[in-house]
Amino acid sequence: MLDELAAARRTMGAATLPAGDAYTMELRRRYDARVEEVWSAVTDPERLGRWLKPVTGDLRPGGSFTLDGGEHGEILRCEPPRLLRVSWLFGPDADDWPGTSEVEVRLSPGPAGDTELELVHAAAVAEPMFPTYGPGAGGVGWDLHLLTLARFLADGEPLDHEAFQTSPVGHEFVRRSAAAWGQAHAAAGGDPAHVAAAVEATTAFYAPEQSA
């Protein structure tokens, strides 16, 4: 599972959203599955619910969706089997922050029947999570979900996130993920003090025992 963490490349960049200037959490990795298989896992409601979260809504371009965890948004673009973009709102005050977050998934077929997945989550600089957690706020969560996707594509079985995060290997996964997002933050020009504090806060949020 820690090898899965190392399989991803993480960068932090910039974007513009309806709410204004944004930062991006960008993940790239390959899956040993054909592009149509990965696209199905990303867009088919039954399959999506097994590695991400159960989803309901009007699941077509222009429609809206809601995940079981409360995340919700609109389907902005859908170009099978290569590109999906959605707005992404979350938290009890999500409706007070319209246009602050978007997620785009891009798929590219590889030469050996594999698939490169690129996930770009753009979040407005003004949203309330960044000052405390930096890019790790969403980045660690996406690392956990893409780990689950790898497991699902390999053998059809989902990963129990709660059990994993409370296990020793889960704690180590979160610690390394938070540190990796700290490196991406620093490479993008983040203030060293902010980077260090954000890594510590993110680790404490996802694996509190590890920060004690």
Brief description of this entry?
The chain has 212 residues and is of the alpha+beta class. It has helices at residues 2-6, 35-43, 45-51, 130-133, 136-155, 161-165, 168-187, 192-206, 208-211; strands at 9-17, 20-31, 55-57, 64-67, 72-79, 83-87, 101-109, 115-124. The protein has an eight-stranded antiparallel sheet with strand order 1-2-8-7-6-5-4-3.
Account of the 3D structure:
Helix content is 42%, strand content 28%. It has 212 residues and is of the alpha+beta class. It has one domain: Alpha-D-Glucose-1,6-Bisphosphate, Chain A, domain 4 (2-Layer Sandwich), CATH 3.30.530.20. Strands 1-2-8-7-6-5-4-3 form an 8-stranded antiparallel beta sheet. The longest helix is centred in the C-terminal third of the chain and has 20 residues, at 136-155. This is SRPBCC family protein. Residues 32-150 form the Activator of Hsp90 ATPase homologue 1/2-like C-terminal domain. InterPro entries: ASHA1/2-like_C, START-like_dom_sf. Pfam families: AHSA1 (PF08327).
